[in-house]
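Handout, section 3.2

Students often ask what a structure token actually looks like in practice. Rather than define it abstractly, here is a full record for Acyl-CoA carboxylase epsilon subunit. The first block is the sequence as you would receive it.
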Amino acid sequence: MIKVVRGNPTLEELAAALAVVRARAAAASAVPPGAPTPRDSWSDPSRIAGHSVPRPGPASWTRTYWPS
């Protein structure tokens, strides 16, 4: 059930809002249960480590977390 809390929307505005809600619900139900979800970019390790992988060497431990 959708309830208008504030304002006085026109029939066209209500139809547009309902179309968006129905499209989102259809998209959410199209994904099979148990399917892997895409990773958020904030959890991508390359965001922290920079664009290159550190090479092994005597000082490689200094480049393992923060980019130089």
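Discussion prompt for tutorial groups: Residues 49 and 67 are 6 Å apart (CA to CA). How would you have guessed this from the sequence alone?
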